[in-house]
Amino acid sequence: MPCSEKRARLLLERGRARLHRVVPFVIRLIDREADRCTLQPLRVKLDPGSRTTGLALMRETESVEPDTGEVLPGAAVLQLLELAHRGHAISDALTARRAMRRRRRGHLRHRAPRFLNRRRAKGWLPPSLQHRVHTSLAWVQRLQRWAPVTALSSELVRFDLQAIQNPEIAGVEYQQGTLAGYETREYLLEKWDRTCAYCGAQNVPLQIEHIQPRARGGSDRVSNLTLACACCNQKKGAQPIEAFLAKDPQRLRRLLAQAQRPLKDAAAVNATRWALAQALKATGLPVELASGGRTKFNRQQLKIPKTHALDAVCVGEVNAVTGWRRPTLVVKCTGRGSYQRTRLNQFGFPRGYLMRTKRVQGFGTGDRVQAIVPTGKKVGRYTGRVAVRATGSFNIQTGSEVVQGISHRHCRLIQRSDGYGYFQQQSLTRKEAGEGRAKRTMRSASPA
Fold first, then answer.
1. CB contact set of 213 (below 8 Å; sequence gap of 6+)
2. What Cα–Cα distance (Å) separates residue 74 from each residue in 45, 143, 233, 290, 322?
3. Which residue among 9, 280, 326, 351 is least packed, with the fewest CB closer than 10 Å?
4. Whose CA is closest to 316, among 345, 339, 287?
5. Nearest-CA neighbor of 148 among 55, 42, 44, 76?
6. Tell me, what's the pLDDT at 166?
């Protein structure tokens, strides 16, 4: 059973437990048998998201209503986690690999592409989306190994993408696309008043332009298309719209206001919601699936501020929550390195070569180390994630800075890299939580 920090310290000092893991801090009891222990039921709750998934480890409690005598279910929060996904990094890596293969086929040597007759399995998801399911399930299984988890709860949310774009949509309009009655070019000419969106030129040949370039993750949706003259289109190239119009903030605000908000995050949640639900059911534990509206209702009733981890606390049926004012452990997916042995310049050609080995003097990038430097300019004690170099001079990422040029002789290994980075996010005080609720109330009451 999870315990307090004081009890864990006493168990370690008296030799009744051993250190199993540093981050997250896990100890292992050695003076009792598991089959003779009576454990309380624990539940893991998830709030799936496109970029961050909230997790909460909770102990189920019961309270009696003094007036009616009714037994109401409650929960005590034991651990809060926020899992930051790296789906965008996976997508960028696949895009770079595709570009390098095309370059090899076209310029350096002929390499015939594979046939396009391969079929994808039923329920296939892109690697950037499947990563969200795998990492969420991996942390559920970790918590199962470390604590007596008996049940799971997950939010099963579905976003209405058309309502996000047009809140006033209703009835038969759901069956009509954005271009109902238009062709794409005619729709853009009417939407942008037949003028260049960047310089305002009229009565000149206009070209269809991506607001957010495809090279930087932009899509072909009509909401990401505009019109530009040939000069502006060539000048902008693959620059972000914020960089291209940095000297004209008024035009930038007007252009972004006229374009519609991107729907990539909402689409990612919609695509992975059932895959995650089926993966949780495959664990063999009872799974409770709840809607996003129920989560919002619980959060408002319990007067809990909105964060990813605290949203997970409010998933499902819950009437009372205690202990939610605690620090949140942010778990960032960093990966386990890359097979790529070189880097590319802006023209797509290799520049330099990386090390063939991932470990130097017994240390690998991502390991948690402690360095004690006795003399020199960098004298002091540093603890954090290490980035190795072939020379044996490492960089250490602490909680607030990056310390460069630390020799491997001063480093001591604390924990091997497991593909994740960890840091603590402080809990909200009562005053901060109240201010956050007041700001959200004022924002919701302000006119649109």
1. 237, 238, 239, 240
2. 13, 20, 59, 16, 8
3. 351
4. 287
5. 42
6. 62
* SS3 per residue for 171-236: HHHHHCCCCCCCCHHHHHHHHCCCECCCCCCECCCEEEEECCCHHHCCCCCHHHEEEEEHHHHHHH
What is the CB neighbour count within 10 angstroms for residue 223? 15
Considering only CA atoms, which of 75, 78, 77, 82 is closest in space to residue 54? 82
For residue 443 the two structure tokens come to 């924002």
| Euclidean distance between the first and the last CA atom of the chain, given in angstroms as a whole number | 49
Q: What is the mean pLDDT of residues 121-149?
A: 94
Q: Which residues contact 279 (CB under 8 A, 6 or more apart)?
A: 133, 136, 137
Separation between Cα atoms, residue 96 and residue 91, nearest integer Å: 9
What mean pLDDT is predicted for residues 305-328?
93
Tokens for 369? 């180390």
> CA nearest 285: which of 421, 445, 140?
140
Q: Contacts for 163-170 with beta carbons within 8 Å, 24 or more apart?
A: 164/261, 164/263, 164/266, 165/223, 165/260, 165/261, 165/263
Pairing of strands 17-21, 26-29: antiparallel
Q: One-letter amino acid identity for 303?
A: K
Cβ-contact 254, 119 below 8 angstroms: no
What are the backbone dihedrals phi and psi of residue 109, each rounded to the nearest 5 degrees, phi first? -155, 155
181-213 per-position pLDDT tens digit: 456 777 788 778 888 989 888 888 999 999 988
Q: pLDDT per residue over 371-424, tens digit each?
A: 999 999 999 999 999 999 999 999 999 988 999 999 999 999 999 999 999 988
* Rounded Cα gap, residues 366 and 93, in angstroms: 19
